[in-house]
Automatic annotation (TrEMBL):
The keyword NAD does not apply. It comes from Pedobacter quisquiliarum. Signal peptide: none annotated. The gene is hemH. It is an enzyme of class 4 (lyase). This is Ferrochelatase. InterPro entries: Ferrochelatase, Ferrochelatase_C, Ferrochelatase_N. One of its GO terms (cellular component) is cytoplasm.
Length: 337
């Protein structure tokens, strides 16, 4: 029997913070039919004619703010996770890391597993909550590549892990050093998605966005809904830390364009909390398992500055899972099934 193959996949990062590399990254990312899910001709005009040319220089400046001697934080922490998982799993497993966009590519990682003659491949997309634009895109890409092989090994996927107990404990442990009970309010800020993508995932056509609280509770009907899974993750972390419901909010960041995205928006929640006299906020970003641009800059810098202009005093980011031992244990647990 051969080794068991494992593929860890995160979203991706530019090869450098230079404009040319950021442009290349954004082009691949935004041209994904699951990310901007509009007809190909329109997507090409929008991405390559408007978004990438104008957004690349601005985004490159942001990446330069978080880039350090280790390079991209997302890639660095992903490589640390890879090394720790390899150590935990031992010689019976061949574990490879890939990014959905840019390097190391899914094609390269799968080629290594194929060359290693593994007898199975377990794919772990590193997105706690399922979304067509993230986990769905990874699954489609892997199936498209492996499906062309003459011999196809057993392939399995982790669809989501929004309620993984060890992951919840790891986020809670990372927060305890800040003494959450001393903050005025706690934010669970998740990556945003267009509302239309939530609606597409509602196979019944009768639930999504039909009421103001349709995502507040996870049920059989909305079990694959990104927003409902996000609310469930927040509920579980809050319960682990004994944070009462009135002391925390769930919100969504990183909008693009003018159409409606999942709400409430983080900016609107910050405005509301400041108006109510809240001064110190503790912020989780549980859609990410490794710190990246969205956590280290968007929350820490942009939202921090925005909240202070509104009269607040502090926005404290809870570090992502990164190399937390419980998170590594959670990954091993999911890999072994």
């Amino acid at each position: 029997m051969g080794k068991k193959g494992v593929l860890l996949v995160n979203l991706g990062t530019p090869d450098s913070p230079e404009v040319k590399d950021v442009r290349k990254y954004l082009d691949e990312f935004l041209m994904d039919e699951r990310v901007i899910d509009i007809p190909a001709f329109n997507r090409n005009l929008l991405v390559r004619g408007i978004i990438v040319p104008f957004r690349s220089p601005k985004t490159a400046k942001l990446y330069k703010e978080i880039w350090d001697e280790k390079g991209s934080p997302l890639l660095y922490f992903s490589e640390v996770q890879l090394a720790l998982v390899r150590e935990q799993l031992g010689p019976d497993y061949q574990v490879e890391l890939a990014m959905r966009y840019q390097s190391p590519s899914i094609e390269t990682a799968l080629s290594k597993l194929r060359a290693g003659q593994v007898d199975s491949i377990r794919v772990l997309p590193l997105f706690p909550q399922y979304a067509s634009a993230s986990t769905g895109s990874v699954i489609q890409k892997v199936m498209g590549i492996v499906g062309k092989w003459p011999t196809i090994p057993n392939v399995s996927f982790v669809n989501s892990f929004h309620d993984n107990e060890l992951m919840i404990e790891a986020f809670a442990d990372n927060a305890k050093k800040y003494q959450p009970e001393t903050y005025d309010h706690v934010l669970f800020s998740f990556h945003g998605l267009p509302e239309r993508q939530l609606i597409k995932c509602d196979d019944s056509g009768k639930h999504c966005l039909k009421s103001a609280d349709c995502c507040s509770k996870l049920t059989d009907v909305n079990q694959f809904c990104y927003s409902a899974q996000s609310h469930d993750t927040a509920r579980l972390i809050a319960a682990e830390l004994n944070i009462p419901r009135e002391k925390y909010s769930v919100c969504f960041q990183s909008r693009l364009g003018k159409e409606p995205w999942v709400q409430p928006y983080t900016s609107d929640v910050l405005t509301d909390l400041a108006a109510k006299g809240n001064k110190r906020l503790l912020v989780f970003c549980p859609a990410f398992v490794a710190d990246c641009l969205e956590t280290l800059y968007e929350v820490t810098v942009e939202y921090g500055e925005e909240f202070k202009k509104l009269g607040g005093e502090e926005v404290q980011l809870v570090a992502s899972l990164n190399d937390n031992p419980k998170w590594i244990q959670a990954m091993v647990q999911m890999i072994k099934g």
